[in-house]
Design a protein that fits this description.
The complex is a heterodimer of chains A (142) and B (412).
Chain A lengths: L1 H5 L13 H8 L4 E5 L5 E2 L14 E5 L3 E10 L16 E8 L4 E6 L12 E8 L5 E7 L1
Chain B lengths: L21 E8 L16 H16 L10 E5 L9 H9 L5 E5 L5 H14 L5 E8 L13 H6 L7 H17 L3 H16 L12 H6 L2 E3 L2 E2 L9 E9 H4 L7 E10 L16 H12 L6 E5 L5 H10 L8 H6 L15 H5 L9 H11 L12 E10 L5 E10 L3
Parallel strand pairs in B: 2-3, 2-4, 9-10
Antiparallel strand pairs in B: 1-7, 1-8, 4-7, 5-6, 8-11, 10-11
Helix pairs in contact in B: 6-10
C-alpha cells in the first residue's frame, strides 16, 4: 500500500509571474517576500499590488527565516484525491509559522519528533528540494 | 507609516433597509444520504436532488413551477459539480425561465448571503419571488476536477495541507492555547447537536452520544476529532423568498427577513498575520442586529454554520452572546432546545450531513421551521426570532473568507 502510494506525485505550486521571485528565492536558499515601499506593510501570499494601501510599488525582501510556531496540527488522514501522494508521510506536522519580521507562513515542521512540536516553539527555515524543480521552505527547531 | 487595520472593520450604514420587506414562504429539504459511497449501490444524480428539493419547496409554498417564470432563480455553486454556467443548467434542469438569475458563489455562506441578495432584488422591484436552491451528490456523481484558489494551490497543498480539516485545526489549536477550552467544552457542543439530531427525523446521525464518545472519536488532524467534523453527503435544499405583501397571502405563515449582514475577506489585524480567532461573523452579525433592531435576549434559536465544532463556539462569541474565550459561559449555558440559549436545533450539518455548499442551507431552513412552530419534538418554546449564519472558504493564514448572518422573525 505504502509502496504504491509513493508513486503518486505530490501537488506542486504553479509558478506565475506574480509568485516567481518567491520560488526562485527558495531555490537559491532564500526566503523572499514582498514589502510595500509606500506603507512598509508585508504582503503575502504574493500579490500584484499592496493589499493594504493599493500601491503598485512592492519590493522583494529576504527574510531571516526565523520565527515561532503560531499554531500547528498533526495530519493523520489523507483527504481528497489530489493529496494522496502524502499518504506515506503520515503522521506529519503542518504549521503556521509567524516569522520574526511579521508575516505568517504555512509550512511543515521537520527534523523534530511530532510530539515535541508546540506553540511558540522557535524555528528556522530549511530548504527542501522536491526533486521536481521546486524547492519548498520548511522549518526545523532552533 | 502606521496603518489602521481596524478601518476595514468599521460599521457600514445601509442606504435603504430591507428589514421586513421580504419573507421566506416555502422550504424544501430532501433526506441526505451517502448513496454511491459503496460500489453497486443505487444512486441519484445531482439533478434529481435538485428537482426534488424544488418540488418540496414549491409544495410548501403552495406554488407551481410556472409561478417562477420571469421571477428570480438563485443557484448555489457546488464544489463537486462546478461549471461556470451552473445557474443556467439549474434553470434547464428545472424547466424554469427566470427573469433574474442570481448565483451563490460564497461557498457555505451562500444560503445566508442569498437571503440578502434575494431580498434586495425583490425590494428593488425586479421580481417578487426568488427560488434559492442547491444540491450536490458528491458520492454518486463526480462532476469533474475541482479548482482551488491560487493561495491554496501554491502555498498550502505543496506542504500537505489537507483542506479545511487542517486549516481549522490551526484555528482550534490556537483557540485552545489562548482560551484554555478543553475537549469537555467542545464535547458539550457536539453532544448537544447530536441530542437535537436524535429528535429530528431529517437528521442522518441520530444516535445520542456522550462527551466520552467525543473524546474517544479518532483524531483526524490534531486537535480535530471525527466528532468535530461535518460529514459529506448527497442531498438538495431550497427556499422561496417572496415580497412581504405576497407572502402574507400564501400557504404558510411568512417568516420575515429582519436583519442581514455579510462580510467577506475579513482580516482582524494585518492581512499578512491576522487574528484567526475572530471571524467576519463579528461584522455580519453586528449589521444583522442593527438592521433587525432586536436584542440578543430576543433571539431564541441560533443555527450556526458548523463545518467544525470550534467554529460554532467562535461564532457564539463573535455574535456577542458571550465574550471572547468565555469558558465559564460555555460551561454554564444550557444549549438545548429547552435551555438558556438553544443552538443547532436541527442537529446541525455535523449530524444532518453536508452535501457540499448545499449543507449550509440547513441553518436557514431550521430557523424557519422553529419560527413556524414546525420543530416537532425539538420545538423551541415561545420563539419569535432566530439567527442563522453561514461561512465559507478558509483563507490563507486566517479563518473564513465568506461570512453572513441573518435574523428571521414571525413579525415584520
Amino acid at each position: 500500500m505504502a509502496e504504491a502510494a509513493k508513486e503518486i506525485p505530490k501537488p506542486l505550486p504553479e509558478i506565475t509571474p506574480v509568485n516567481q521571485p518567491f520560488w526562485d528565492g527558495a531555490k537559491a536558499g532564500k526566503l523572499m517576500m514582498q514589502r510595500c515601499k509606500d506603507c512598509q506593510s508585508w504582503v503575502f501570499c504574493p500579490r500584484p499590488i499592496c493589499v493594504e494601501c493599493n500601491s503598485g510599488d512592492l519590493e522583494w525582501v529576504q527574510l531571516s527565516g526565523r520565527g515561532k510556531v503560531f499554531s500547528f496540527t498533526v495530519i493523520r488522514e489523507v483527504v481528497g484525491q489530489a493529496l494522496r501522494g502524502f499518504a506515506p508521510d503520515i503522521p506529519y506536522v503542518t504549521a503556521w509559522v509567524d516569522l520574526d519580521e511579521g508575516p505568517r507562513f504555512c509550512s511543515n515542521i521537520i527534523g523534530c519528533p511530532i510530539e515535541k512540536v508546540h506553540i511558540d516553539m522557535p524555528v528556522q527555515v530549511v530548504f527542501e528540494d522536491s526533486g521536481e524543480g521546486i524547492t519548498l521552505p520548511k522549518f526545523k527547531p532552533c | 507609516m502606521a496603518l489602521n487595520y481596524l478601518s476595514r472593520n468599521q460599521e457600514r450604514k445601509f442606504f435603504m433597509s430591507i428589514r421586513g420587506k421580504t419573507a421566506i414562504a416555502g422550504i424544501g429539504e430532501t433526506p441526505t444520504d451517502r448513496l454511491g459511497s459503496k460500489p453497486g449501490e443505487p444512486r441519484k444524480s445531482t439533478a434529481e436532488y435538485l428537482a426534488w428539493a424544488a418540488r418540496l419547496a414549491m409544495e410548501d409554498a403552495g406554488l407551481t413551477k410556472k409561478d417562477f417564470d420571469s421571477q428570480g432563480l438563485a443557484a448555489i455553486y457546488t464544489t463537486n459539480h462546478s461549471q461556470p454556467f451552473w445557474p443556467e443548467e439549474v434553470a434547464a434542469i428545472l424547466g424554469i425561465t427566470p427573469g433574474v438569475s442570481l448565483a451563490g458563489g460564497n461557498g457555505g455562506a451562500s444560503s445566508v448571503s442569498l437571503l440578502g441578495h434575494a431580498a434586495a432584488t425583490i425590494t428593488a422591484g425586479l421580481c417578487d419571488l426568488v427560488l434559492v436552491i442547491a444540491a450536490a451528490a458528491p458520492f454518486s456523481e463526480h462532476g469533474g476536477r475541482r479548482g482551488e484558489p491560487a493561495d491554496t494551490r501554491d502555498y498550502e497543498m505543496p506542504f500537505g495541507v489537507m483542506g479545511p480539516n487542517c486549516k481549522i485545526s490551526f484555528v482550534m489549536s490556537r483557540y485552545m492555547h489562548e482560551s484554555g477550552m478543553t475537549e469537555d467544552h467542545f464535547g458539550k457542543i457536539a453532544v448537544t447537536g447530536r441530542y437535537h439530531a436524535s429528535l429530528n427525523p431529517n437528521a442522518y446521525l441520530r444516535k445520542p452520544t456522550t462527551i466520552e464518545d467525543y473524546k474517544k472519536s479518532r483524531l483526524i488532524s490534531d486537535p480535530i476529532r471525527l466528532f468535530d467534523c461535518v460529514m459529506p453527503a448527497n442531498g438538495g435544499k431550497a427556499y422561496i423568498m417572496a415580497s412581504a405583501e405576497r407572502a402574507k397571502s400564501m400557504r404558510k405563515p411568512p417568516v420575515y427577513l429582519l436583519g442581514w449582514g455579510e462580510c467577506n475577506n475579513a482580516s482582524y489585524g494585518p492581512r499578512y498575520r491576522a487574528n484567526p480567532l475572530i471571524t467576519g461573523i463579528t461584522q455580519a452579525g453586528k449589521r444583522a442586529f442593527d438592521m433587525a433592531g432586536v436584542s440578543h435576549k430576543d433571539i431564541r434559536c441560533l443555527n450556526l454554520y458548523d463545518d467544525y465544532i470550534p467554529i460554532v463556539m467562535l461564532q457564539i462569541e463573535d455574535l456577542g452572546f458571550c465574550g471572547k474565550n468565555d469558558k465559564a459561559f460555555f460551561e454554564k449555558t444550557d444549549f438545548t432546545f429547552k435551555g438558556d440559549l438553544p443552538i443547532q436545533t436541527s442537529g446541525g450539518m455535523i449530524n444532518c450531513g453536508q452535501p457540499s455548499t448545499t449543507g449550509g442551507m440547513l441553518h436557514v431552513l431550521e430557523t424557519v421551521r422553529q419560527i413556524r412552530g414546525e420543530g416537532g419534538e425539538r420545538q423551541v418554546p415561545n420563539i419569535k426570532f432566530g439567527i442563522s449564519t453561514g461561512v465559507g472558504a478558509v483563507n490563507y493564514g486566517k479563518n473564513f473568507g465568506c461570512t453572513a448572518a441573518a435574523i428571521l422573525g414571525s413579525e415584520a
